[in-house]
Every structure is written in structure tokens, then in C-alpha cells.
Design goal:
The protein is mostly beta strands and 284 residues long. The protein has 2 domains: 39-115, Beta Barrel (OB fold (Dihydrolipoamide Acetyltransferase, E2P)); 132-283, no CATH class. It has one helix at 8-28, and strands spanning 45-55, 59-65, 73-86, 95-101, 106-112, 145-149, 152-156, 160-166, 169-177, 180-188, 194-199, 202-205, 212-214, 220-224, 230-238, 241-248, 256-258, 263-265, 268-270, 274-276, 279-283. Strands 6, 7, 13, 14, 15, 16, 17, 18, 19 and 20 form a 10-stranded mixed beta sheet that branches. The protein has a 6-stranded mixed beta sheet with strand order 12-11-10-9-8-21, with no helix packed on it. Strands 1-2-3-5-4 form a 5-stranded mixed β-barrel.
Length: 284
């Protein structure tokens, strides 16, 4: 059979159509909610966190924090199907987590954070002392959410904050609701795989690893790695204060270590610093 060059665009189109159809079929089998996500579904699934700004029978729109400013947001729209699962009735203004298939932005599960089980409840302990630098420019608003990290502090007037981001990867996020505090966190192995992940205070591990999580009381969550080191230690001190310790690392970087006295990254040590905004500690 003789082929001519003018047939090539048609062949390319058929190949692309076949590939797209095959990918769509593969993704349709992914629920994108039960972790760890199977390898075949990793490119199919996404997770979005934010507040619901509108909801209809066929779609839901949430706003996500987009920058270090508390006021800068981006909207994302998701399709609701008859089989989209929900843990409560969706309502505008409620913080939510959307699990979705990237193909068509189809929501497979939507969780209202306030309706989740396992949220940390605030204790009644006094606030840890703020660094002096928090008082030099503007006082911390009394209703702000304060986060204490190794002699440093950050605060936000929002109920959602990215506590630590390293090279564009968010490693620790907090969301405050009337019913408790939700935690999102990731821990990576040396080869770049996620080996432990917390989404809305639900703990998932790679079955080939041996991380463990403990909740010594209703205000705290602690995660230990395979060497029995505390890689995450979060305590909800009171309704507006959270204390964070741990060891955080993304592939190709040195670990960020937060102990009782300082935040360390390689040869850099920070103590006594104060940051405000929706993204507190960003290491690039």
C-alpha cells in the first residue's frame, strides 16, 4: 500500500483521538478519593481546597488562595454528576475539599470541612509568647489565626493558611472551621514519592512504608517516620493559636527542621521572625 504525505495529518488526528479516548476511559475508572491514588490514576486526579462561592445542581465553584496576600483568590469550577459523593449539603461560604477528575473537572467527592470527623478541637491553653518583631510594624489582629514555629510566628486574618512551602510544593496547610482544625500535609521519600499524606486530618500512607500517626488528645496530631522521628507535630493550643514542629522535605532539597527554638534549613537558622499573610514560610 502506498502512503502519501497528505494522509499524515489524518493519521495524526486519528492517533490523538485514540489516545484521548483511551485516557478518558482509564480516568473514568478513577474515583480520585481513596488514597493512595493508584499509579494509573495519578495524572487523572486532582484535589482542590477553598470556600464554596456558588453551587447548583450541576456545578460548584470554589475560591482558592493564590498568593501571599490574604485577599488574592482564584475561582475553580467543577461539574457535579448524579454519582458525585458529598459528606453534607453543599452551601455557599463553607470551606470544602473537592476531589476531581482532571478530564472535564468532574467532582467525584466533595467534603465540607466542618462536617468531617477527626478535626482537632482547640485547647484552652494560654498563647505562647509572640516574637518582638510581631509588634514592630502592626500589632497582630486579635482574631487572627497565629501559627508558632520554632521561635518564629506567622498569622493570617483568613481561616486558611499555607504554613510551609518549599520550592513550589505546599507541605503544610491549616484550615480553621467552627468545628475544629483541618490539616493537610505531605512527606516525601528520597526518590520523590509521597510516602505519607494527610488530607483534612485523614492519614494515608504508601503501603510500602511504615509511617504511623498518633493523636495523644483531641488537640494534637503527631506523625512518626520509619526512623521513629517526629516529622509532624501539630497542637491546636486554643481557638486562635497553633504550634507546629517537624521535619519537612521535598525531593532534591535539604530538610526544613522546626524544633522548639528555631527553624533550620541547611545553614540557615531563623528565630524571632514574624510573618503575615495566607502563605507564611516560603522557601525557594
Amino acid at each position: 500500500m502506498n502512503w502519501h504525505w497528505n494522509h499524515m495529518p489524518h493519521i495524526a488526528s486519528l492517533v490523538l483521538l485514540f489516545t484521548s479516548t483511551a485516557n478518558a476511559q482509564q480516568c473514568s475508572d478513577c474515583d480520585c478519593y481513596h488514597f493512595p491514588i493508584p499509579k494509573k490514576c495519578e495524572n487523572c486526579c486532582g484535589v482542590a481546597n477553598g470556600k464554596i462561592t456558588s453551587v447548583t445542581n450541576s456545578s460548584v465553584v470554589i475560591t482558592e488562595k493564590e498568593s501571599a496576600s490574604d485577599g488574592v483568590t482564584a475561582k475553580k469550577s467543577f461539574v457535579l454528576k448524579p454519582d458525585t459523593k458529598k459528606n453534607a449539603v453543599l452551601k455557599e461560604g463553607a470551606p470544602a475539599t473537592v476531589y476531581y477528575r482532571r478530564q472535564g473537572n468532574v467532582a467525584t467527592q466533595i467534603d465540607l470541612v466542618e462536617a468531617l470527623k477527626g478535626l482537632l478541637v482547640p485547647g484552652d491553653e494560654p498563647d505562647p509568647p509572640l516574637p518582638e518583631s510581631c509588634y514592630r510594624v502592626h500589632p497582630v489582629p486579635p482574631d487572627a489565626l497565629r501559627v508558632y514555629l520554632g521561635g518564629n510566628a506567622g498569622y493570617t486574618t483568613s481561616d486558611q493558611v499555607t504554613v510551609l512551602s518549599v520550592r513550589g510544593t505546599d507541605l503544610l496547610d491549616l484550615r480553621r472551621t467552627p468545628n475544629g482544625l483541618a490539616i493537610n500535609a505531605k512527606t516525601f521519600s528520597g526518590d520523590g514519592k509521597i510516602i505519607a499524606e494527610i488530607i483534612d486530618s485523614r492519614f494515608y500512607i504508601n503501603p510500602n512504608n511504615f509511617f504511623r500517626m498518633e493523636k495523644p488528645d483531641s488537640h494534637s496530631i503527631i506523625v512518626y517516620d520509619t526512623h521513629d522521628r517526629k516529622v509532624l507535630d501539630v497542637r491546636y493550643v486554643n481557638s486562635h493559636s497553633v504550634k507546629v514542629l517537624g521535619i519537612f522535605q521535598v525531593p532534591g532539597t535539604l530538610p526544613v527542621i522546626i524544633d522548639e527554638y528555631q527553624l533550620s534549613f541547611g545553614g540557615f537558622h531563623s528565630t524571632g521572625s514574624c510573618y503575615g499573610g495566607a502563605r507564611l514560610f516560603n522557601i525557594s
